[in-house]
Design a protein that fits this description.
Layout: E1 2-3, E2 18-19, H1 22-27, H2 30-48, H3 52-65, H4 69-82, H5 85-98, H6 105-123, E3 126-132, E4 137-140, E5 143-147, E6 150-153, E7 157-164, E8 171-177, E9 183-188, E10 203-209, E11 216-222
Parallel strand pairs: 3-9
Antiparallel strand pairs: 1-2, 3-6, 4-5, 4-7, 7-8, 10-11
Helix pairs in contact: 2-3, 3-4, 4-5, 5-6
Length: 224
């Protein structure tokens, strides 16, 4: 007995048949096979209608009745559409484990690699910082991380960022990194104020005459 594969109108679903032969068929009774087939067909129909959560539930039911690797591939497709990347990754890996000679193995492995990259980007979004002037030292949570322009993945959570540059005021700001949300900052550093000396006052000579025998004494009085 065979379960109908996904229709050609669903290009994202694996175009393979769900076979219930060999060891699996021996272990499953007729009622289980029938239920698995119906659940699989229902999942395929729901996927075509873009009802991915319901389709995933149907494929899970099919797999529980009769475990089969092809169902896991379709389940991974649903999870990927739903943005549940961890579950999609698990489904694809298990599919390759159960179907080691799958003809589409290379394509599925590429999909797994892509999901791993997306998950890493979600867990550690990239933070990019440019400054005016450039070449400022970037400190993240007190640790030197490089100079602007600077770009690195940063763990999700609250951070403290500081930029320092000779002859410029340091700039500090809080940084809230959220899953799957890369950040781009362009910060302007203000020059350090120039400290000027107090102005030199004008000097006005004041003449004081004393006894002729003693001559004149000049006293400089600061005026101004």
């Amino acid at each position: 007995m065979m379960i109908r594969p996904p229709r050609a109108t669903s290009p994202l679903l694996l175009a393979l048949v769900l076979t219930l032969t060999g060891t699996t068929a021996v272990a499953a009774n007729a009622a289980a096979r029938t239920e698995a087939r119906r659940a699989f067909e229902r999942g395929t129909r729901l996927y075509d209608e873009a009802r991915y959560a319901e389709a995933a539930t149907a494929f899970e039911q099919a797999y529980r009745r009769v475990p089969n690797g092809v169902v896991l591939y379709n389940l991974g497709q649903c999870y990927e559409k739903l943005g549940e990347l961890d579950k999609a990754l698990t489904s694809y890996r298990e599919y390759l484990r159960l179907v080691p000679k799958a003809k589409d193995r290379e394509g599925v492995q590429n999909r797994i690699t892509n999901l791993e990259t997306r998950l890493e980007a979600a867990r550690r979004p990239r933070v990019t910082v440019d400054s005016e002037p450039s070449g400022a030292q970037v400190l993240l949570d007190g640790q030197a991380r490089g100079q602007t322009p600077w770009s690195e993945p940063v763990e999700v959570g609250a951070h403290e960022m500081e930029l320092t540059l000779p002859d410029h005021l340091s700039l500090k700001r809080g940084l809230e990194v959220r899953a799957g949300e890369p950040i781009q900052l362009r910060l302007v550093l203000a020059p350090t104020p120039v400290m000027t000396a107090a102005p030199v006052p004008d000097i006005v000579p004041v003449v004081t005459e004393e006894a002729p025998s003693r001559g004149r004494t000049w006293t400089w009085v600061a005026a101004g």
